[in-house]
Amino acid sequence: MGIIRLNNMSFYGYHGVYDFEKEQGTNFEIDLELFTSLATSSKSDNIEDTINYEDVYELVKKSFGSKSYFLLEKLADSISKSIFNEHNIEKLIIRVRKINAPLDGKLDSVEIELKRKKSDYV
């Protein structure tokens, strides 16, 4: 078992519960941990034997921009489902951060984390 990580992917999007979030948008960051066997690729040195992280990034980008969600939880679940549909992974951890969330206070971001297995989407 191995882990492929994509850290701090940055996107601008229109997700949130307030109208101004859906109109003006804000910055988001996404981290992914993909749990999969790396036994073959660690021996073969062949991109075809592993999860191509460029493909994963493009899939996250497409899923992120395809629809506007109220909740970060739903956004993360939608991205997770699309990854399981396209790639042979056993489980994943996804963290979605909303930068400068609209709160009456100072903080860097709000973050949710989901842990999913392939069986969650069967």
Description:
The structure is a single chain. This protein starts with a strand and ends in a 5-residue tail after the last strand. It has one domain: GTP cyclohydrolase I, C-terminal domain/NADPH-dependent 7-cyano-7-deazaguanine reductase, N-terminal domain (GTP Cyclohydrolase I, domain 2, 2-Layer Sandwich), CATH 3.30.1130. It has 4 helices and 4 strands, in the order βαβαααββ. The chain is of the alpha+beta class. The model has no long low-confidence stretch (mean pLDDT 94). It has a 4-stranded antiparallel beta sheet.
Task: Provide keyphrases for this structure.
alpha+beta, single chain, 4 strands, GTP Cyclohydrolase I, domain 2, 122 residues
Which fold name corresponds to the CATH topology?
A: GTP Cyclohydrolase I, domain 2
Please state the CA-atom Rg, rounded to the nearest Å. Answer: 16 Å
Work out the helix count: 4
Strand content: 25-35%
Number of DSSP E strands: 4
**What order do the SSEs take from the amino end to the carboxyl end, as H and E?**
EHEHHHEE
